[in-house]
Amino acid sequence: MSFIATQQRWDTFLAKIRDRFYEVLNKTETVLPLLFEATDFETITFQNAWQGIYSQASDLIYKIENTWFDKVERAFLDLDIDYDTSRFIQERNKGFQLQHELQQELKSYEVRIFADAAKNLVSQAKETLSKDFCCTQCQAKLPIRDNFFRSHYTTCDYCQTVNTFEPGTKARNVEHFAINALGEEAALEHYLKYEHLKFQNYLSDRDIFSKDELIIPYRKYIETYLKKRIEVIPDYEERYEKDLSAKMSFIIDYS
Amino acid sequence: MTDKTNKDQNKEKSLLDDILGNAISSTNKFDEATAGLETKKCKSCGAARPSDTDLQYCDFCGNQFY
């Protein structure tokens, strides 16, 4: 087979992967929000369904790398095109570029679909918490905050009875589910930039961007994520510095 | 060609249905808590717990809460 014919087969394969990837994601875009509403904002079912779709999309992405190393690389080498030639590198990078592009797209899609579900959940929770809650002893109205999603004691100003307030499963899920999704949405652009710089290093097989340069977008990502979290639940403010340093240690100490 | 497209669409539909079906059927269902209030009351005298007291003894009759 000639170089042109091999190249065309490789290009066709990459185009098919791209089409199939977007086809999978487009089909699920309308279905997942419907599932979330149909299960009355049940987050575990939503996450399990997403996991299935994510696996399908990830399998497609990794098929690029696997096909290159299993078959395509050999096909080009058999045409006497060496590893270090520009033609070989160009063909290999085409696959890696698409793989990176689809990974970034999958991350953006995941963040968007989770953030949309999260906004829905937060508005449901706020609606519940804005209702009137009365003291179990004297029926006086109790002040319930609409930005605190855990069970807590609240004392009645009239009869001094201690009431235990239970916010309910939906409101609790704001903390377990929604807050992360909203933080990820706010910080997405910095995360994508960090991944893009890392990819440039991988593609050129050397550190074009130093560790210090990589830390800049990663730090912005973490800071934006944590600040968004505080915006939704102000109580997180007091542990901001601790969380920032814990999350930064991931890249400072382990990469 | 049309048959192939229809076949692909059916396969696609069934894949999505399978994923969603599995997610619904394999997820454990737990009772959902609803928003509300409750008050710890003494089993002996029925008094509610006033503020600035702990959960050890009833402030009115001294009976142990737990």
Output the radius of gyration of chain B: 29 Å
Mean pLDDT of chain B: 79
Tally of structural domains of chain A: 3
Strand adjacency order, main sheet of chain A: 1-2
Q: Look at the structure and give the mean pLDDT of chain A.
A: 93
The helicity of chain A comes to: over 70%
Helix content of chain B: 25-40%
In terms of structural class, how would the helical and strand content of chain A be classed? mainly alpha
- Describe the global form of chain A: elongated
Report how far the terminal alpha carbons of chain B are from each other: 74 Å
Low-confidence stretches of chain B: none
Order of helices and strands of chain B: HE
* Total of DSSP H or I helical runs spanning 4+ residues of chain A: 6
In summary, what is this structure?
Chain A is mainly α. Chain A contains six helices and two strands.
Identify the notable features of this structure and list them briefly.
heterodimer; A: 255 residues; 3 domains; elongated; B: 66 residues; mainly alpha; 1 helix
Task: Describe the protein in words.
The complex is a heterodimer of chains A (255) and B (66). Chain A has 255 residues and is mainly alpha-helical. Chain A has helices at 3-38, 43-77, 86-129, 169-204, 211-232, 240-254, and strands at residues 152-155, 162-166. Chain A has a two-stranded antiparallel ribbon. In chain A, a hairpin with a 6-residue loop joins strand 1 and strand 2 (162-166). In chain A, helix 2 (43-77) packs antiparallel against helix 3 and helix 4 packs antiparallel against helix 5. The longest helix of chain A is centred in the middle third of the chain and has 44 residues, at 86-129. Chain A starts with a helix and ends with a helix. The model of chain A has no long low-confidence stretch (mean pLDDT 93). Chain B contains 1 helix and 1 strand, in the order H-E. Chain B is rod-shaped and about 75 Å long. Chain B has one helix at 2-26, and one strand spanning 36-38. Chain B is 38% helix and 5% strand. Chain B has 66 residues and is mainly alpha-helical. The termini of chain B are far apart.
